[in-house]
Specification:
Elements: H1 6-11, H2 14-23, H3 32-45, E1 50-58, E2 61-68, H4 70-76, E3 83-84, E4 87-93, H5 94-98
Parallel strand pairs: 2-4
Antiparallel strand pairs: 1-2, 3-4
């Protein structure tokens, strides 16, 4: 387990973040606080119209899932390697959430 503060995470290099992220046992919630903080920052700084941001535990990796309006989703749905502060970002459509 790697103990790191949010401040240390923000100041870490991409390589350090990748190493630390891989060391977390996400099934035990390790790194969840940092992922939540980064998701909140992404929501505030993103230029797209985000209605909701969540973190997902996907195969032992924290992902930021941004729910965006339909017009933005059409532009973002095929982006595969989008990252923000060491976390992969996925996009979902606000219309899918309300259906």
């Amino acid at each position: 387990m790697s103990l790191i503060s949010v401040e240390e995470w923000m100041n870490a290099s991409d390589e350090e973040r990748q190493r630390i992220h891989k060391s977390w046992d996400t099934s035990k919630g390790e790194g969840k606080e940092i992922a939540s903080t980064v998701a909140g920052l992404f929501s505030k700084e993103c230029v797209y119209n985000i209605s909701e941001v969540n973190i997902l535990n996907h195969n032992g990796e924290w992902l930021v899932d941004a729910c965006v309006v339909a017009d933005d989703y059409d532009n973002l749905k095929d982006r595969k390697n989008f990252e923000f502060l060491g976390f992969r970002v996925t996009f979902s459509s606000q219309e899918d959430q309300t259906a």
